[in-house]
């Protein structure tokens, strides 16, 4: 069976540009659409098409190696290059599949949460945010990254603020996110500016080549790295820079929270990987120190502190948001090890966490849709009143803890193995401790739902009121995916290994076909 | 001291950057925070513009004098031909780097969009809370947390 032959030629050639351009242009069009149903259907179609194209690109990368695309026919390094390789192809597929699945869910959810006249612009902003994330991941041009970062961020601020028709606290939390996000993006731009000062190029691969000549001793390059790590750290919610995340996740419309939690931090994590390992050279002393002390260190702190904070939250979505910060900590720990096993585990957790956190937030949105529940203490008896939704929630929650047979277990086990190989035995202790804390905060919710009586209104038990199918299907798709990939983790693991392979090759030229003039740089892999 | 004057642009960038960041972090008023954010972003524009200057470089525009008879718009085609010839003949002319200007044009647009969204949020916040002071909003939010959401 050759899945690749099913894709038309133009997808494999122009796919890298199409997955960004299509949602960007359609997004602008549907902002004017008079019918919300039409907007929804278009969004669904566009995200689905992007998902198919991403799948085609991923298959192409697996079988034929990296794809390069010169925007507008301008050859890199002068023109803007898009490139798809083993590192970003799985993230592209992840973002577009999550967007597609969440859009199904959006149909009832948006009607319940967003005012009628704002629904078409809502979908438009969602497509812009989606296009921005895809652009961040697919582009090989450093300044282009900044632009897409802002495209996705600005539409995200607007979308978070749209939760205000449900809870007015969405407004200050969106404002807070805007301030923190803009500072992060500006730090990133400053970093790129310093790199441009020293290298005179914006193409990532070309930058990597020139940086090899400049070497690690250059102060401006060191400064650029610091600015980029802090800027991306704000975007990916690295532990002390995460303060925007819990409120933004808690008050955004529930459909968008699920999308945001599953994809936004993941795109920033991808950029961190790309810059640290491909543009810079991880064998340089200041980068290996930063990886070990700052990235792994803050990852560990986040795993413990954010998990602890999650236990004491009363709002369900804030519990899950703090848990997201903790899970980003796991990923950062894997990245900080900078070994092949560590990177594989970190990358695997990027994919797995997106699946399970997406499912959890979808379930929480369904609780609100039926009963207006936002607090953990209000979850009493949900196991009886919404059995299917609660079962999906429980499966994803067990995955979050890391119960064997779920994706959470696969990536935590991989992380523990990587730590053992690295000799970081204490890190295994931290992983176990953080998982125990996860048992407490997930268990607290499951206990309320299954072991507390169904609440009474006017001396009558609340009747069973299951979420609609358009909500259950996306929820169970993700929940079942988290079990399926937990039992047979071969495919995601091979994707993660492919990504770690790309990272381990170090600063090599990905865009081989379009950049023949530049001499190849000896691989610095194997450190 | 001479170092400051030798790198005067960068000194200004640092001062603006720190002023902006301080304003963002120190003020509780949402408008003042946005002002600080704008100052901070402007300092980055200045940084980019500064690095585009090449010592002894001219503005990256082909001047009329070099075009040898770029007379009027009707002769634009000739002018372009001449320009092409001139550039190839006088390759030793040093121009400043135009690329950072283009980049910063994009960044300015982004800055305007961010400011617009930020101001819109301030307006909506004032409608909902009747205040744009963050400590007062926090107090209302604390109340909301105790009593459940307002709606």
Keywords:
heterodimer, A: 527 residues, two-stranded antiparallel sheet, disordered C terminus, B: 151 residues, mainly alpha, Helix Hairpins, 2 domains
Distance between the termini of chain B: 60 Å
Contiguous low-pLDDT stretches of chain B (5 residues minimum) are 69-76
Number of strands of chain A: 4
Give the mean pLDDT of chain A: 88
Helix content of chain A: over 70%
Brief digest:
The complex is a heterodimer of chains A (527) and B (151). By secondary structure, chain A is mainly α.
Folded structure, characterized:
The two termini of chain A are 38 Å apart. Chain A has a domain at 303-507. In chain A, the strands form 2 sheets. In chain A, strands 1-2 form a two-stranded antiparallel ribbon. Helix content of chain A is 73%, strand content 2%. Chain A is mostly helical and 527 residues long. Chain B is mainly α. Chain B folds into 2 domains: 2-60 and 97-147, Orthogonal Bundle (Helix Hairpins); 62-94, no CATH class. Chain B has helices spanning 2-6, 8-26, 30-52, 76-89, 99-129, 134-147.
Q: How do the strands and helices of this protein lay out in sequence?
A:
The complex is a heterodimer of chains A (527) and B (151).
Chain A: H1 9-30, H2 36-64, E1 67-70, E2 81-84, H3 89-113, H4 119-138, H5 142-161, H6 170-199, H7 204-214, H8 219-236, H9 244-251, H10 254-279, H11 285-311, H12 316-337, H13 340-371, H14 382-385, H15 387-401, H16 407-422, H17 425-451, E3 456-457, E4 460-461, H18 469-487, H19 490-504
Chain B: H1 2-6, H2 8-26, H3 30-52, H4 76-89, H5 99-129, H6 134-147
Helix pairs in contact in B: 2-3, 3-5
């Amino acid at each position: 069976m050759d899945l690749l032959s099913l894709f038309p030629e133009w997808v494999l050639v122009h796919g890298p540009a199409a997955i960004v351009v299509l949602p960007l242009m359609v997004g602008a069009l549907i902002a004017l659409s008079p019918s919300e149903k039409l907007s929804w259907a278009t969004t669904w179609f566009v995200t689905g098409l992007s998902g198919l194209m991403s799948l085609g690109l991923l298959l192409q990368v697996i079988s034929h190696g990296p794809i390069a695309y010169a925007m507008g026919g301008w050859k890199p390094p002068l023109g803007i290059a898009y490139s798809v390789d083993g590192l970003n192809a799985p993230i592209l597929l992840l973002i577009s599949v999550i967007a597609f699945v969440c859009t199904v869910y959006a149909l009832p959810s948006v009607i319940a949460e967003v005012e009628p006249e704002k629904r078409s612009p809502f979908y438009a902003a969602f497509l812009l945010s989606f296009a921005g994330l895809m652009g961040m991941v697919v582009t090989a041009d450093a300044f282009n990254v900044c632009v897409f970062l802002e495209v996705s961020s600005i539409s995200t601020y607007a979308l978070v603020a749209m939760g205000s028709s449900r809870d007015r606290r969405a407004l200050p939390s969106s404002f807070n996110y805007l301030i923190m996000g803009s500072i992060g993006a500006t730090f990133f731009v400053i970093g790129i500016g310093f790199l441009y000062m020293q290298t005179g190029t914006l193409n990532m691969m070309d930058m990597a080549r020139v940086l090899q000549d400049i070497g690690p001793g250059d102060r401006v390059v060191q400064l650029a790295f610091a600015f980029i790590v802090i800027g991306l750290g704000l975007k990916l919610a690295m532990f002390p820079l995460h303060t925007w995340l819990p409120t933004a996740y808690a008050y955004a419309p529930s459909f968008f929270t699920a999308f945001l939690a599953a994809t936004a931090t993941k795109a920033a994590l991808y950029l961190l990987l790309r810059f640290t390992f491909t543009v810079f050279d991880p064998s340089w002393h200041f980068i290996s120190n930063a990886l070990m002390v700052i990235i792994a260190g803050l990852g560990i702190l986040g795993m413990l502190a954010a998990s602890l904070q999650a236990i004491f939250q009363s709002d369900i979505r804030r519990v899950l948001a703090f848990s997201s910060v903790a899970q980003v900590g796991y990923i950062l720990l894997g990245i900080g090890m900078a070994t092949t096993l560590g990177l594989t585990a970190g990358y695997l957790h990027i994919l797995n966490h997106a699946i399970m956190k997406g499912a959890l937030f979808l379930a929480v949105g369904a609780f609100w849709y039926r009963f207006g529940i936002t607090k953990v203490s209000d979850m009493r008896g949900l196991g009886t009143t919404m059995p299917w939704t609660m079962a999906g929630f429980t499966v994803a929650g067990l995955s979050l803890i890391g119960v064997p047979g779920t994706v959470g277990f696969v990536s935590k086990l991989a992380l523990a193995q990587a730590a053992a190989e690295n000799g970081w035995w204490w890190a295994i202790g931290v992983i176990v401790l953080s998982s125990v804390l996860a048992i407490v905060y997930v268990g607290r919710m499951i206990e309320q739902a299954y072991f507390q009586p169904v609440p009474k209104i006017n001396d009558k038990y609340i009747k069973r009121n299951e979420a609609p199918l358009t909500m259950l299907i996306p929820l169970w798709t993700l929940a079942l995916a988290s079990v399926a990939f937990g039992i047979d983790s071969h495919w995601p693991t091979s994707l993660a290994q492919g990504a770690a392979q790309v990272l381990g090759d170090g600063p090599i030229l990905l865009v081989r076909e379009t950049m023949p003039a530049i001499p190849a740089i000896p691989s610095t892999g194997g450190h | 001291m001479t170092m400051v004057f030798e790198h005067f642009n960068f000194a200004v960038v640092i001062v603006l950057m720190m002023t902006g960041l301080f304003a963002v972090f120190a003020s509780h008023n949402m408008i003042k925070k946005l002002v600080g954010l704008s100052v901070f972003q402007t300092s980055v524009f200045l940084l980019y513009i500064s690095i585009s200057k090449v010592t002894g470089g001219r503005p990256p525009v082909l001047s009329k004098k070099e075009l040898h008879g770029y007379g009027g718009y009707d002769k634009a085609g000739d002018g372009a031909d001449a320009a092409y010839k001139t550039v190839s003949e006088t390759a030793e002319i040093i121009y400043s780097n135009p690329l950072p200007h283009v980049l910063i044009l994009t960044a300015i647009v982004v800055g305007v969009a961010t400011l617009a969204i930020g101001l819109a949020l301030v307006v909506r916040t004032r409608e909902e809370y009747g205040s744009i002071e963050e400590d007062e909003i926090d107090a209302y939010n604390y109340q909301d947390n105790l009593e459940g959401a307002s709606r």
